[in-house]
Design goal:
Number of helices: 10
Structural class: mainly alpha
Strand content: under 5%
Shape: rod-shaped
Helix content: over 70%
Largest sheet: none
Oligomer: single chain
Length: 222
Amino acid sequence: MDVGRNYQFSDAQLIRIGSEIKNLLPLYMRQLTDHTPAINEDFLIQFQRTLKEAKSVPATDSLDEEITLLEEEIKEKMENACMVFRSLRLYIQAAFPHDGRVWEQLGFRDYQRASTSRNQMLMKLQELQHLVEKHRAALQVVHCPPDYYWQIRVLRAELQSMGQKLNEKLVEQKRLQSLKLARMNALYAKLLIISDVAKKVFANQPQVLEMFKLPKHLAAAV
């Protein structure tokens, strides 16, 4: 069961059960109210509102797909960044064949670690940009294509933009998931109240009681 989730059931199934109970309540309201005055017309209105609110939370399916797509695009950009790095590494080694200090500034192992972290990759791309600009003249001598200079800048800008979009979508996803969870838990709580009262009111009417019963694996999640 998800953290914070009070029911072991799918959201769709809980909504279906709530809709069925909503239709039953007006038919048996008098008996329920006689036993428990709190189960009255006001409670019915509140229950209907709770059910409507649970239904009204937008599904996150399309948002989930957008997030997955963005994550794949970011992964591809980071792979491109690693390819640019490996190519530039060869040119820098050619430009400074006897100066290992320049090679060390590239931090090859750092790039390997950064390939799984967007923030680290942005930092390494910035370092690479500064290094290339500092040694541009020496790189031109070994015929390093000038395209690499703007490729680094473009990759940084794209990763920053895509990362910002991803963060915004993740925040919205979490907001909707939290809202859905709160509203579904509220619906479940009201269903438990109705079910518990119905057990007492209709103890001698098994057919009616059966209609108010929650499925065992749902009721067990109290």
